[in-house]
Amino acid sequence: MSGPKPTRDYLDIAARMLLMPVLLGQAVHVRTRYVELPEPIGARSGTVGSGPPLRLLVIGDSSALGIGVTTQADALLGQLTERLQAHATVTYDLVAKTGAKTADVLGWIDELPGPKYDVIVTALGVNDVTKGVSLRRWLQQQASLIDQLSSRFDSPKIIISGLPPIGQFPLLPHPLRWVLGRQAARFDRHLHALAAARSDCVALQFNMGLNAANMSEDGFHPGPTVYARWADEVAQIVRTSPDLLDVAKGAP
Fold first, then answer.
1. What does the alpha-carbon distance between residue 147 and residue 7 come to, in Å, rounded to a whole number?
2. Which of 25, 107, 168, 245 has the fewest CB atoms within 10 Å, measured from its CB?
């Protein structure tokens, strides 16, 4: 990352500095009223479907894990494999942990279960934003993660989930919500630029509004309809990639 920072970045930094006492107080308050939800039940490895073989890995933070729903069937993994099982024999693994940052996932790569994957879906960034990781460091870690996944698993298709609009999370009060939302949007812009410069990955654009009706009860994690939209977007990429599945482009 080089060149001068955009004016809006400088303005955001100045705003954060001015608001810091308020932000710190709000962060403490949020922690005291946060409701910790249980991990969804269900298999995190297995095989479903019929057709050409497709090896799938979902890896990342609590959203990859499916926090916010009660079963894996309603989480990203279950909804994604349900959409793919009519087109492929999907062998899948889920490796995720609540609170995981990109740096944490870099430490997992040597221990991942599969000898090879055709598709890897990553879900990372929210914890990097909320825990104050710098944009420069995060981009370096994301680039390293893509490189290592590509090398370790024989050049899979890497689908990078874009950051959700943290500025719409019901749990967060303003101005904390505004500040974290602006930072997440900045991370997301640079993430898409990183993916666009590479042939081995694609970044999803999160294009769904969030509110109390479609988020989970904790006001921080997706509900079933958000996971469904996410799964739709990933499945569309997989189904329309001729190098992955022997199906007609644009098949439902």
1. 31
2. 107
Structural domain total, the chain: 1
Residue span of the structural domain in which 189 resides: 7-239
Q: Residues 108-144: pLDDT tens digits?
A: 999 999 899 999 999 999 999 999 999 999 999 999 9
Sheet holding 89-96, edge to edge: 45-49, 89-96, 53-60, 119-123, 157-161, 201-204
pTM of the model: 0.88
- Domain harbouring 228, CATH code: 3.40.50.1110
